[in-house]
Design a protein that fits this description.
Shape: globular
Helix content: 25-40%
Distance between the termini: 35 Å
Strand content: 15-25%
């Protein structure tokens, strides 16, 4: 009887959390979000302290240091962004993009099918090409490569034990997952963050790699003008503990401390973490 009550309580909590998330994201505006976070000063490729080049460099090193390659790379919670798979697209046969919001999936499809986007990704592609030791002029080739390997843009819900519909991945799971600023922005506390991390782990094969980018010390971000979306304010030790509880071996943890010029009023983030981990 006690177990039944506990099960029912957990079910009601999940319904409450899903309802809250749906309400928060109802007015999410991809164009505003991209402008807030993926244009200068945060995406200034001439500025050493800019956060976007730091993220791209972390992803490049994570893939190349251990020569990580495979069949399937899944981007968990892509949002309306592409930068997180620009390095990985060269190393995997298939890339799956995913997001809970239809507006974000439509934005991704618009770029993939028509080359149209709410921001210009050219500078991003050029920067990653240079990280790879190629000429920046190779960016067209890289963009073509990314379009050719993206096999799906799928609905996903990290609050479910099976975030993707069954049968979309091989039974063993994907070879690698990447996820950026997703889990902490759709959960309400550390416990639910850890549960979401376990949920996405069900998509990854044993021995597969996880690259996780997220916010530190953040309690909100703007998803549109005047739309304050709550975030779980994590610290480094909590991230490490959640990874351990979810069955990961932590291979690398890098921290970016937000300088004053990157604090542009669209959130209260104090830092960003990059994690490279392996599923035990």
């Amino acid at each position: 009887m006690e177990k039944d009550r506990e099960r029912q309580k957990m079910k009601l909590e999940k319904i409450k959390m899903v309802t809250c998330m749906e309400s928060c994201y109802q007015g999410f505006d991809p164009a505003a979000y991209l402008h807030y976070n993926y244009t200068p000063p945060r995406a200034d490729f001439e500025r050493r302290s800019s956060i976007v080049p730091w993220k791209l460099s972390c992803l490049h090193r994570a893939f190349t240091e251990d020569d990580i390659r495979g069949g399937i790379l899944v981007d968990v919670g892509s949002g309306p962004t592409l930068y997180q798979v620009m390095s990985g697209c060269e190393r995997f046969d298939h890339v799956i993009l995913s997001d809970y919001l239809e507006v974000n999936r439509k934005e991704l499809q618009s770029w993939l099918q028509e080359g149209k986007s709410m921001i210009d990704w050219t500078a991003y592609f050029k920067y990653v090409c240079e990280l790879e030791g190629r000429s920046s002029s190779a960016w067209v080739e890289k963009a073509t490569r990314l379009r050719s390997v993206v096999s799906d843009v799928l609905p996903l819900d990290v609050l479910q034990s099976c975030p993707l519909l069954p049968g979309l991945l091989p039974p063993s799971g994907a070879d690698c997952l990447v996820s950026s600023f997703c889990l902490e922005s759709v959960t309400h506390d550390l416990l639910s963050f850890t549960h979401a991390l376990r949920n996405i782990s069900s998509l990854l094969k044993k021995g597969g790699y996880l690259f996780l980018i997220g916010a530190l010390g953040e309690s909100f971000y703007l998803g549109a003008p005047g739309l304050y979306i709550p975030v779980v304010p994590l610290n480094e030790s909590q991230v490490c503990a959640s990874l351990k509880d979810s069955g990961y071996e932590l291979l690398q943890l890098c921290i970016y401390h937000m300088p004053p010029e990157m604090k542009v009023g669209v959130d209260d983030v104090t830092g960003v973490f990059f994690v490279k981990a392996k599923k035990a």
